[in-house]
Each structure stands twice: as structure tokens, then as C-alpha cells.
Amino acid sequence: MLQEKGSAVTDECMTGGGGGEETDVLPDQSRPGLSTAPSIPTSSEPDQNIENIKVVLHERELWKKFHEAGTEMIITKAGRRMFPSYKVKVTGMNPKTKYILLIDVVPADDHRYKFCDNKWMVAGKAEPAMPGRLYVHPDSPATGAHWMRQLVSFQKLKLTNNHLDPFGHIILNSMHKYQPRLHIVKADENNAFGSKNTAYCTHVFNETAFISVTSYQNHKITQLKIENNPFAKGFRGSEEGDLRVSRLQGKEYPVISKNMVRQRLISSHSHLAGKLGAGVLTGHPQVLSSYQYESGVPLSNTDPQDPISNHFPQNRDPSLLYHCFKHRDNTRHLELGCKRPYLDASSGVSEEHYFRSAPSYESPILSHPYCTESINSREACMYGAMETESGSGAGDTDDLTNSSINCNMWATMQPYSRYSMEGVPYQPFAAHFTNAAGVSPVVPHPSSSMASRPQSDLGVYNSATAQRGLPVIPPSPSSSSCPPAVLGSRDRSGHSALYNKKPGSPIRPHRDFSAYPTQGTISIREPSYQYQVGLSSTGTHWTDS
DNA sequence: TCCCCTGGCACATTTGAATCGC
DNA sequence: AGCGATTCAAATGTGCCAGGGG
User: Fold this and answer.
1) Contact of A113 with A120, CB cutoff 8 Å
2) What confidence score (pLDDT) does residue A47 get?
3) What's the pLDDT at A402?
4) Between the CA of A225 and the C1' of C14, what is the distance in angstroms?
């Protein structure tokens, strides 16, 4: 059923006016997963009709190219940007209504992959999901007019494999498959989440799915990155006989580019000065193994029978899927926030905002604020969705909604595919951006400049800072500083947790990420929390080993 | 031994301060 | 003094590579 639902939505989206690039809104009714949240839409207020919002993925063709080859995204300890960067064109918003745009990256499945025989294969069960984090667009909240004015870029979003990352980057496991999701949340009158009828919609572009790696496995991807990423220009071969190009073209004997020569010479001189036996140029064994052969198999990307060899082993719906619904008064709301103290804290700083979402699709969806003072100039503000430790159930909803703490509470990320086999096409994304204090936006106000500013103060969301477009981070975060988070479509509470680093002080994690509690939470496997994502196959070929 | 990760490297782009001219 | 254009250096973002660890 779910599959059918998801597919239907997907198909509809694909055939929409956007030529398959635009997304359509999935009515509340179409999300049977909201068992605890009445599916009857409360769209009595026209201005909250978020269903009309359409999102078009920018550079979709480029994304498709990567997707067809099996997109890989480098993740590093320091954090690595995504390329292609996630940019969208949004339409259909109420020009005067304020929205918050954010992205989260959820596991696409529960597999760990390995690149073997020039294709991705399942290598086992996925490792426990990293603490989910959300990246809130620095302009958030902003009016619909603002979002629709130009492309909305999430290019500064960074991915990391550092489980204790203090910068708020999205934490991922290497060799795992992920699916970015865009969430558009309607901000309340206080520019925060949490109004009684907070509505949001989620947009998923299947072609943005990727496998996280610490180094590129598929040379097709490497080549695409080099060819399209300006920062990788230095690796572009000046002559068409470039080694990588030649390899991609299926040439038997690749030509070494000047860059390759330089790199190897340098390496040879600096590290292997005494290793005269090591070939430095064309005769270098590694050259052959790396560019001419793949796992002992001759590379031939032009081989018509090979096109899918590098693809993800899963069939996916080429279209995107997204859900949209409106929270009702008696259901959990999107609540944002940091406690008042946080709002009053000193200025924060970065235009980048990260929120941490639920740690694992295996675990409940709780969101704990995860704030930190960035060590670097970006000074990102992070919020994390932590599982609840309170063990409180649905009855915590009131507590949450009544909380005056301005913390971001989001539903945890949900996995795709397998875990949703029994689920419903419901996107268990819930967030409470509360601003009970009645202060201005918890999320930074749109800033004229996207440039990050060095900040010595803790990043704390306060009205002043927000107005300046500067994120603010709670000064002294603690598990009790933020309100319990709500998860999924059910009432769940949790303790907030965040990273906080005072100026000049070392990074001080307030919570052990490795010890996320899972008890008292609802497994995503539960039908109510499962949703089907019509991940399609655009040529991508996944192979189960 | 293999696989994966890390840190350093060079190169290109981006950013912002400093400088100059009007 | 103010403004805009230009220049320059630092910061940042890339992929590549060798080496290390499990």
C-alpha cells in the first residue's frame, strides 16, 4: 500500500507542471502514517496552505548525471561540502508568510556498501545512524517572497564522519547511502515553529541520494566532480588526453596529465625518495590499478553493458516524493527553540544553522537542541534531535507545547526503503520550533550577506542576533535547558542536548552521542513512523551482495 | 593482506580588507 | 569625506596521495 501510495505521489510529481522537477504537495489524507495525528487537514486558513508550494531542484540534470553514476559524497572529519550543491527554486509560497527551510539527511536504507567490481554492493548491515542533524538555511525564517526571489542554496551544508563533530555538520557514516530531504516549515507569528497550526512539507529528490565515502570509489564520480566543481579545476586535464578522461573514455592506456605527473613526482620525492623501484609515471603500478583497472577488471565506462555497474543497486522512482501536512492543535507542533536564557545570550554567529535530528532510524525521534559555539569562523548553531530519556509518552505533548524554551525539536530522520516496507507513505518529520518567550525568530533572520562572520560569542538565538541574520547558540546548554522534543506524529519528549563551547574553551560535548537512549521511543519500524519513499532508479544500479 | 580513514599537499576559487581614483 | 572599482592576501574548498590502523 505504501509503495503504491508513494509511487502515486511520485508519479504525480513527475508529471507535474515542473516537468518532473517540481514537487507537489501530498495531502494530509494521503499520509496514513499519522495515526496519532488526525489526517484531516486543518487548512481552514488559506495562508497556511503549504500544499501549494512547489520546489524545483536546481541543476537537476547535473544531479542526474551523478545519480546515474552513483553519487558519492566525500565526508571528512572537518566537514565537506556537497557537490553538486543542494539548490532549489521555490514557488507557490505566500509572499508575506514566513518560512523556515532546512535540510536533513536520512539513511536511504539499512545497508552498508562497498565498491566492488566497479559497482556498489551491499556489504552488510548499516552501522547505527549518526545523530541526526538538521541544516537550517541561514536565511530562515524569511518570507515567501524572499525564498521565491532567487534560488535557495544549501551549498554551505557540510557532511562529516566525525561523530563528535562540534561544528554542527551533518554526521554520516561512511559507505552508507543517504537521502537529503528539504523541509519547508511555516514559521509562526514569532518567526518560529510552534504555532498551533504549524505546517510544513518535505521534499525529496531521489537524484540527490548519495553514498558517503571518505575517498571516491567510482572514478566516474571523480571525473564528474572535477569537471563540474570549480574548486576542483586544478585537477582538470588541460589536454584531452588526461589520464582520468582517457580512463573514462575506455582507453586502454591512459595518458598521465601534468597534474598527475606533478602529484606523483612530489610524492615520489617527498615520500619515496629512496624508493627508486617505485614507478613514478606511466609505469607506476598504482596508476594502472587505479585508472586502468578496477578490482582487476578492466575499466570501460563506455561499455554499453556497464552503464549500470556503477549505479546504486536499488531501483528508485525517478521522481521525488514529498509530504506535506499541517499540525493540529491537538497534535505535536513544530516547536523551536532555545530557552529564554539562550535567546538572551550573547551574539552568535554563523549563518549556518544545524539542527540535530533523531540519531537513528532505529530509535525514537526526539529532538534535543544541539548548540555549539563553533571553533571556526562559521560558528554554526546546531540543534540535534536527541532521543528522549524521559521516557514520557504522548502525554508529554502538552509539556512540550507549553514549554517556553526555544529549542528546535524535530522528528528523527527516517530511513527509506526497507524500513518502510510495512509503513505508510508518511514522512515522519515533525518539528517544534517553539518560541514561547514571544521573542523573535529562533532561527536567524535572513541576512543580506551569506558570508559567515567570526564570532567570539556563543551562538545563541536571540532576537537581536536573529535580526542581524546571525545565529545564536546557547551559552550554557544542558539537557535541561531545552524542552523535550516531540517526535514523529506522536507525542514524545526528550531532553535537549547540545554542544556548547565557550569562547576560548575547548569543545565541550554535553552529551555522549554514542549513548543515545532508545528506550521509551517509538521505533521507526512501527507502521506509524514508517513511510515509503519512492526511490527510483534513474539508471542507478544497486546490487545486493 | 585488504579495506578504510587520515593528514598533508598543491591548485583554484572565494572572500574581505586595503588601496586607489574620482 | 564618501563612494565605487581594483588589487591583493588570506581563507576556503577541491581531489590526490602515502601512510597508518583495524
Assistant:
1) yes
2) 46
3) 31
4) 9
CA A449, C1' B21: Å apart? 27
Q: Residue A264, CB, less than 7 Å from strand C?
A: yes
Spatial distance from the CA of A241 to the C1' of C2 (Å): 54
Nucleotide nearest A256 (Cα, C1'): C16
Nearest to A294 by CA among A124, A112, A119, A69: A119
**Residue A83 covered by a domain:** yes
Long-range contacts of A12-19 (CB under 8 A, 24+ apart): A13/A319, A13/A320, A13/A321, A13/A322, A14/A317, A14/A318, A14/A319, A14/A320, A16/A54, A17/A54, A18/A54, A18/A56
Q: Residue A191 domain-assigned?
A: yes
Domain carrying residue A106: 54-231
What is d(CA A534, CA A428) in angstroms, rounded to the nearest whole number?
15
Any domain includes A9: no
C-alpha dihedral (A115, A117, A118, A124), degrees to nearest 10: -20
pLDDT mean for each 10 residues of chain A (545 residues): 29 30 35 28 48 92 93 94 94 92 93 91 86 86 90 92 88 94 84 65 95 93 92 71 35 37 38 30 27 28 34 42 40 31 32 46 32 33 36 32 31 40 30 30 33 30 30 31 30 31 33 31 27 33 41
pLDDT at position A355 is: 54
> Where residue A118 sits, what CATH number does that domain have?
2.60.40.820
How many angstroms is C1' of B11 away from CA of A415?
39
The C-alpha atoms of residue A364 and residue A488 are separated, in whole angstroms, by 8
Number of domains forming the structure of chain A: 1
Residue A260 Cβ < 7 Å to strand C? yes
Phi, psi of A170, deg, nearest 5: -75, 125
- Using CA atoms, how far residue A372 sits from A154, A155, A322, A346, A506, in Å, is 20, 21, 31, 13, 11
Residue A253 within any structural domain of the chain: no
Strand C closer than 7 A to residue A5 Cβ: no
